[in-house]
Amino acid sequence: MRLTTYLRHPWTAVLARWGRIPGIRTAKVTLAAVLSYVAADLLNTTASPILAPLTAILVVQVTVYQTVAEGLQRVLSVLAGVLVAVGLATVVGLSWWSLGAVVAVSLVLGRVLRLGPHTLEVPISAMLVLAVGGAAAQAAAGRVYETLIGAAIGIVVNFAIAPPVHVESAGSAVAGLTTRLGDFLRSLARQLRDGWSRHAAQNWLTAARGLGAAVLEADNSLVRAEQSAVLNPRGGQVRVAQPRLRTALTAIEYCTVVIRALCREVFDRTFYLPPELETEVYPPAARLALADVLDVAAGALDGVAVVAAGGEPVEAGRARVAAQLDELYQRRELLGRLLLVDPHADAAAWQQHGALLAAVDRLRVEIEAAVRPAAQPWRPPSLTEGPRRAARRVVGAAEQTLPLVTDRSRQAVRRVMDVAAEAATEAVANLANPDPRAARPHERAADGSLPVEQAAADAAVTALRTAADSLAEEDATEPAPRPGATEPKADEE
Description:
Layout: H1 3-8, H2 10-18, H3 24-43, H4 51-59, H5 64-89, H6 96-112, H7 121-131, H8 136-160, H9 167-194, H10 198-209, H11 211-228, H12 236-269, H13 284-309, H14 314-338, H15 347-370, H16 385-401, H17 403-432, H18 452-476
Helix pairs in contact: 3-4, 3-8, 4-5, 4-8, 5-6, 5-7, 5-8, 6-7, 7-8, 9-11, 9-12, 9-13, 10-12, 11-12, 12-15, 13-14, 13-15, 14-15, 17-18
């Protein structure tokens, strides 16, 4: 954040930095708790409706999507625990064995329902209801009502009052990761200029392997920003920024892999020389050229950080990165000429120098990809996509395990259509000649056409015959059954 911008517009600068009003979540949690208590007290759910504000406090999360998910899971866990307790309270009271049964059944039910961290709330709700004994039904109803009130008010408050979006925090995380990679390359370049050793190469390889944790943190921040667009009227900001941030993060993640490979190649090269010559693993001119390459790559990463943070126009940042990449290409060509060796004279050096140059080329490609415009816009994931995938998996499993059901159903439908076609044929015959003893030709209308009833019957017969023939042709062209599917056994004569 620039100092001049903060001095001129301090409030706007704070909102741009944090992505939300400071203290807004505290205010929303407090308001949701108070409203939940007042609503539960007016409805007279229990004598002390403290569960409603407790649920509201736990439900209000950093995004609207997480708030809805948290509310639904809490309601489901409380309902499951209440049902278990009411089912046992009608038969037995509170004792050591009934308590154990309630806890065991509640934990199993929570795992079956996949409640995750809310699994423990199932036995807690069940024990609280079971402890009241004869008033179990009233306590169960009050606990359910207060949970519903707290969850509903928490969702409404988080949705209505400044629903948060986390675009700025995600941009800062991606930009911070990119800046960290640039600083890493600059430090490595300084080490190459000052001197090189096997111990230094091993330390830099260890440090490069530790960059994965920072990538995971940035990815979590971006995922939270993507979730904040779901069910959020302010989600348009995320839809605009997400393609840029996801493209940059994906390329930067690959850059960390390339940097680790580059450090590995430099470290492996030290084993091909005696310990007293490990500082001469590269000629002095080659070490300086490699340091220049890393410095230019760090400058290009600085441009990527600016694009990811959105601190300046995107096109200006991309032009800056393109200029740095052109200079990186020239530096790489110079490094390639300095590392050129005869493969017949030193096969190991030729192989490892080639791997080092390939890592530099790959680093340049990934930096270029980090600022590339997205191919298509982004939309928040649909809330119904998960249930749809589950339904498709269930249908696919049913088709694989019960292939005969589908075949027999199709055969039954074909037989029904054949019988219907025969019945329609007989109906047409009876319509044309209602008295079988007096055979006479079809009567035609004055214009020579068949009566309307007979024409309709003929059309029905034709349609049924066509459908039956289509089913027969489809069965004839049906592919072979899946491996492992059981074929129906033919009747033995």
